[in-house]
Amino acid sequence: MRITWTLPEELVPYELMALRDEGYDVSEVEARWAAAGGPLAVPVEGASVPGDPALRELALELLDTVPAPVTPPLAVEPEPPSGARAGHGRLLGAWTGRAVGCVLGKPVEKIPRRGIREILGATGRWPLTGYFTAEGLPPEVAERWPWNRRSAVDSLAENIDGTPEDDDLNFALLALRLLEARGHDLTSADVAQAWLDWLPAGRVFTAERVAYRNLLLGLTPPETALRHNPFREWIGAQIRTDAYGWATPGRPRAAAALAYRDAVVSHAGDGVTGAMWVAAMTATAVVASTVDEVLDAGEAVLPDGPFAAAVREARALAGDWEAVVDAVEKRHGHLHWVHARNNAALVAAALAHSGGDFDRGSARW
Fold this sequence. Notes:
By secondary structure, the chain is an all-alpha fold. The chain has 3 domains: 8-65, no CATH class; 88-101 and 165-362, ADP-ribosylation/Crystallin J1 (ADP-ribosylglycohydrolase fold), CATH 1.10.4080.10; 111-144, no CATH class. It is 53% helix and 0% strand. It contains 18 helices and no strands. It is globular. It comes from Phytohabitans suffuscus. InterPro entries: Ribosyl_crysJ1, Ribosyl_crysJ1_sf.
């Protein structure tokens, strides 16, 4: 058994990557780590990198000495309650679309774009028009790009039977349960307690697993997101705040405020900003007439910074979709594949190119 995402010797290379992206000079820390035999590079795609337990003591020392991240205060003033309501069809569509997108991507999680393209081309499904399939996939392609082993059994076209359990969907349901139990005044402490009460530690990953560990060590939010957490600006919070928007139709700032309180349990910086962005957009999507209204609402809650710039730049990209993705990859390819900023850029570009058509938007790879 290997417990990933929390071991100090595993975290150091990711922390160095995070600090470099945040603009820090990490040369001295890198030199000490490298001199002891620690790896400096981590892959921007694929699974986590095991560390050497012999380096644990040094890893703890280095993690304690690097610059500490901070959580800025919420800078969005929620709208007062209004009479806006989302129709049943809109909400059903939001949840169904969330589930469809989740199942669609599960078999190819961790597979890079070139691998996805090769799989689809080899099975006659490029451009993407439906779920992935193993039928007709040449053995050499399957060996080169193996399916996600946990998802291939229930998320391919030939074996889908409903929506399988997934951590992404678990968080949407958890947010709904929180809202039912605590209402719109829920706090970060409420979110943290809900994790301990209702969420198995083995079903959370990266930043969420670090935050869970920190909760068990006795820390409280937002400190749970800040101690030894190099995944603080990854996508975890960004993918768990949809329901806050669905529950506040037409009130994007109120949704963003709820998302902020949730996100700071495990994230900082772009990780929190991304959560607010998604919640503001989902609050608008259930009442809006155009996708531009949705994107505008998301941008309106963003503080100035790299995340806002990435979203606006990606939204403005025009032309052939493949060229758009090339541009996003060129701009953000140095980031890990589950960083919040590169994923948000791709989402913004896909929404802008979709013109509001779900099939067109969800098939953007």
